[in-house]
Amino acid sequence: MKKETARPVILSASRVTDIPAFYMPWFLNRLKEGYSVRINPYNGKRQCLSYEKTRIVVFWSKNPAPLLSAIHTLEERGLGFYLHFTLNDYEQEGWEPGLPSLKKRMQDFRDLSVRLGKERVIWRFDPLILSPLLSFSELARRIMSIGEELVSLTDRLVISFLDISPYKSVIHRLKKGGFPLRTPTEEEEAEFIDLLSRLQCKWKDVNPSFSISLCAERDWESRGIEPARCIDGDLLKKLYPYDSALQDYLKKARKDPSQRPLCRCIESRDIGAYGTCRFACIYCYARFTRVPLLKEDFTKESLSDMIKNTGKKESL
Q1: Taking the model in full, what pTM does it have?
Q2: Domains held by the chain: number
Q3: Is beta strand 156-161 parallel, antiparallel or unpaired with respect to 121-128?
C-alpha cells in the first residue's frame, strides 16, 4: 500500500450501498487482509484505506440479517460497531423492490436488538415520502404501527424528508417510471414534526431513553425534535468507554467535511461504491441501472479488494 493510504478510526459501511445485505463476505475478507480500496466518485482516483487504526464500524442497511452471523467475527477482532436499520413501509407502493417482507424485517430488527442491545440498533424511517398513492395520514399510521412494535427495541428513530431536487437522475427516473413522489411542503413538514414530537413523548413512557431526531434537516429543536448525529461521537463515548484509542480520537473528532452542511456526523471513511446496491429503491440517489443478482458475482466480489460497480449510469 502507498504512503498516502488513509488510516481511518471510523468506517462507514455504507451510505451508498448495502454492505450487510450483499457484501458481508467481502467485508469480513477485507478485515482479514487489513485494507480495502475505493474509487473516488468525483475524480476517479483509487483510494486505499488501511484498517490498522480502525476501532469502529457504523453499518447502514435495509436488510441486515446477514450481520447476525458476522457478529462473533467482528467481536473477536475487537471492533466496536452499531447499526442504522432503515425500516420503512412502502410495500404497497413497491418503492423498495427486492426487500424482504415488512414482517421479516421487523423480526430481524428484534433479533439484532436482542443480540446487540437497543442502543446499538437505530431505527430509520428514511425518507418520508408523499404521493397521490400515499397520504399524510396513511404514512403517519404506518410510522406509528411500526413504532409500537420497535419502541422497546431501540433508543432512536431517525427521520428525513424526501429531497430529490439535487439529483437529476432521480428526477428523470421518477418521471420515466410514472412515480409521482413528492417532497412534503413546509406546512406538511411542520405537521410531521408536531406528530413526531407527540410520538416521542408517548413512546418515552415505554422507553425513557427513546428519542426522535432529524437527519440533515433544518432546525426543529424548538418543537422538540433534535438534529441527528448518525455517526455520533457522544454515542461512541457511551458504548466504548474503555477503548482508550477511540476515546482519544473522539476528543478531537471534527464534523465530517465530506458530508452535507446540515449533517452533524463526525468524520469517517465510507468503504462502499455507488451503483452497487441491488435493491433498486426508486428514490435512491446512489443507484445506477439495476444490478443483476448473480450468485457468481458474490463469489468474485468477496475476493476483490473493492466493491465493484457492474451497472451503468442512468441516462438523462
Answers
A1: 0.93
A2: 1
A3: parallel
